[in-house]
Amino acid sequence: MSQSGLSQKQIDQFEESFSKNDKYQLAQNVCNGHPLAEMLASRPLQQSVQHCFNNTIEKEGQPITDQQRSGRCWIFACLNIMRVPFMKKYKLEKFEFSQNYLFFWDKVERANYLLHAFVECARKGETYNGRLISHMLRNPSEDGGQWDMLVNLVEKYGVVPKECFPNTWSADNSHRLGQIMNNRLREGCSVLHGMVAAGKTEAEIETAINGMNEEIYRIMCIVLGKPPRTVMFQYMNAADKGKEGETTGAKKTHSIGPISPRDFYHQLVKPDCMDMEDLVCIVNDPRPNNPYNKLYTVEYLGNMTGGKPTLYINQPIEVLKQLTIKSIKEAQTPVWFGCDVGKHYNHKLGFLDLKALDFQLMFDVDTLKLGKAERLMYGESLMTHAMVFTAVNTSDSGAADKWRVENSWGDKDGDKGYLVMSDDWFSEFVYEVVVSRKLIQDPSILAVLDQEPVRLPAWDPMGALAH
């Protein structure tokens, strides 16, 4: 019987090559006793990168937010851009919208969406061991999301100040909640598939789904709190400033309400702070089978039955950059974006840079041989996280060289929670930005929204959710 696997001759060659190289020996000694990310960190980059930008929005949100041990970044990033004009309007020094409020309604609505999706799949003959259902059941109640899911939630349920619906332990530490939710949805999928196979009526199936939804709502109320029907927001705004910056009056206290969360958004936020329906998602998917200037969607990527579908306008990366610069410089508006945050990221220093981690020096390997399209095609990269652009540094020609990023991981890393992203990193690992329609002067881009969207399969990497 021949020997399986690597031959002894091959292993001897590998060992000899490793043992002869003093650099490998030193690298082994260093990496055996220290965190790998710290050993890969580039010292030259640390000495050259500074948190200084020549184009910034007038006011950044305060305080820096922290999603803790949860996958709510997409919600945090949305509310972080929403609070900036709201703080300016009401002269607030610090303010947060309730992330827990949107998290609650996403869990409830997404459960209902998935239960109906399971029924639809069963009627199409999809089985539990097929690729589609297997994908949908992998983590049906994950925390992450996409931009159009936020539009669905905010337009229907509104928003509330964080003081009116604060975080709970399970909002900040969502792993166990996710396990419970996955259990209920997987069981629901089994029951509904059985009902379809048994020829149960539409009314019988809807009754069963209603019971499952009530169970989900009950669990959410227990762990996240029961969301308020009305809120009373009390705040103290900043003292007025004179022409020379001197204080001309004392701080004043104000009250808003009682008001419903939906009216809070539609009356106080949407008209002159931020209109969710005005914002569109522009993506960069350079795969050869997905041409630019086309509209895309992903099967079963949603969180609300009958709600807005998740739509992407595919454009070259330079279009994403130009629109982001325009939003920051001209509109003084921060920009929600999605990226693959785990790639070439010095967490402690807050650097998103292709030179942030020196794999070549440590391992003699080049981790950037694949292009952006190939990384998507071969599972090496996809969108994993949502954050906010608040500033950009540009040359005299208008080209960017670095970007300032507001994260939602607390204030310990980078510049008190703010990161620096190189423009090269933007090109390789930013996948989508959300900007106002008013900033898009090229009518052909918005015209893409009139197209019938190309439907990508549920497991396509463009269906990845930001955590």
UniProtKB/TrEMBL annotation:
One of its GO terms (molecular function) is cysteine-type aminopeptidase activity. The active site is at residues 73, 385, 407. The keyword Heme does not apply. One of its GO terms (cellular component) is cytoplasm. Its EC number is 3.4.22.40. It catalyses: Inactivates bleomycin B2 (a cytotoxic glycometallopeptide) by hydrolysis of a carboxyamide bond of beta-aminoalanine, but also shows general aminopeptidase activity. The specificity varies somewhat with source, but amino acid arylamides of Met, Leu and Ala are preferred. It comes from the Eukaryota. One of its GO terms (biological process) is response to toxic substance. It is found in: Cytoplasm. Keywords: Cytoplasm, Hydrolase, Protease, Thiol protease. PANTHER family: BLEOMYCIN HYDROLASE. This is Bleomycin hydrolase. It comes from Dreissena polymorpha.
